Amino acid sequence: MIKFLSSWLIESYPRLPAQQIFLSSCYHGLVDYQKIEDWQKLKELKNLLDLANPPKQLYFQGNWNREIFKNCVAVVGSRKMTDYGERVVEKIIPRLINQNQTVVSGFMYGVDQYAHRVCVDSGGKTIAVLGWGIDKKLTSLDAKLAKDIVDSGGLLLSEWESQEGTLWTFPLRNRIVAALCDEVIVVEAAENSGSLITARAAARLKKTVWAVPGPITSKTSRGTNRLIAEAKAKMWLGEDSMQLSLSPNIDPLLQILENEALTADELARKLKTAVSEIGAKLSLLLISGQIMEKGGKYYLTDAS
Questions:
Q1: 257 with 230, same domain?
Q2: pTM of the model as a whole
Q3: Residues 161 and 295 reside in one and the same domain
Q4: Of 189, 213, 240, which one is at a domain's C-terminal end?
Q5: C-alpha span between 170 and 59 (Å, rounded)
Q6: Element (H, E) at 119
Q7: Pick from 79, 100, 98, 76: which is nearest to 88 by CA?
Q8: How far is the C-alpha of 186 from the C-alpha of 196, rounded, in Å?
Q9: Is 190 within 8 Å of 158 (Cβ atoms)?
Q10: Tens digit of pLDDT for each residue in 27-49?
Q11: Which residue has the higher pLDDT, 246 or 148?
């Protein structure tokens, strides 16, 4: 990673738009990076000024391009990503890329890193906001992802030069993720997930917050389901994100439940659908009040 960063700086620094940004090249220990001097003067970073406590300094690795900040969407979630969360990320990211949106996340293992990875592999651009100093040495896997992000035209961004990741730096990092974006999508989140901090920060900044509903039996969906239930986030449903339109006339799951109460496993077998997908749909129906659950079986509300 050191070799690639050094060679990149030599090749790319002369092409940086000096008329719009003020940069200083830094070398600390064995890691090359750059400091953004007077970042407050940059139009592409003006949203950070809306924060009650904007960062004092900003550092980055990558090829600075102001266009990357124009249409940003944060995709964040649990560090304990499930198979369901993985599939959701694989569904969300290509759509954002097709809409020429930049994916922003926090570069932590789980949903965050997977969002970066899918974005890079799908030909998109992504910004990784670090919860530690820019000069921190990365593990081999993290270094590979960081290199791929930069090589694909993305950025690594941090408000610290030399700072270890701690219990306070990660929540503080989340406010920058929220401020950079027009929308925040929370894929999976437990009840005390750091992703909920990002959602709250986004709400304070009047950003649109989306939450992906998940199985009510999943701990990693308790936070997202609660955001939806308490009307603190819109429900992200892919093509049908703007409205929940499920009725017995068109939904096979509800048609089956009209005749008998069944468990999620039984519904999955009858509908020949993955249990995780059935669980997600059941969660939507529970939230909307169309069904209820008792003893592990699901009933239509008006038939219970």
A1: no
A2: 0.73
A3: no
A4: 240
A5: 16
A6: helix 111-121
A7: 76
A8: 8
A9: no
A10: 333 347 899 999 999 999 999 99
A11: 148
Would you say residue 246 lies in a domain? no
- Give the phi and the psi of residue 60 in degrees, each rounded to 5: -150, 160
> Rounded to the nearest 5 degrees, what angle is found at the Cα of 157, between the Cα atoms of 151 and 158?
145
CATH number of the domain residue 294 falls in: 1.10.10.10
Q: How is residue 85 written in tokens?
A: 């969360």
Average pLDDT of the residues of the chain? 84
Q: Are residues 189 and 266 in the same domain?
A: no
Answer yes or no: is 35 within a domain: yes
Instruction: Tell whether 268 and 158 lie within a shared domain.
Output: no
What are the residues whose beta carbons fall under 8 Å from the beta carbon of 182, sequence distance 6 or more? 71, 72, 73, 207, 208
Residue 284 sits in which domain range?
252-303
User: What DSSP state is assigned to residue 56?
Assistant: S
Domain count, the chain: 2
The phi and psi torsions of 197 (rounded to 5 degrees) equal: -65, -40
List pLDDT tens digits, range 60-96: 999 899 999 999 999 999 999 999 999 999 999 999 9
pLDDT above 90 (res 57): yes
Asked if pLDDT for residue 54 goes beyond 80, the answer is yes
Which of 113, 121, 265, 243 lies closest to 187, judged by CA? 113
DSSP character string of 70-104: SSEEEEE--SS--HHHHHHHHHHHHHHHHTTPEEE
C-alpha–C-alpha distance, residues 110 and 262, integer Å: 32
Nearest to 186 by CA among 69, 47, 78: 78
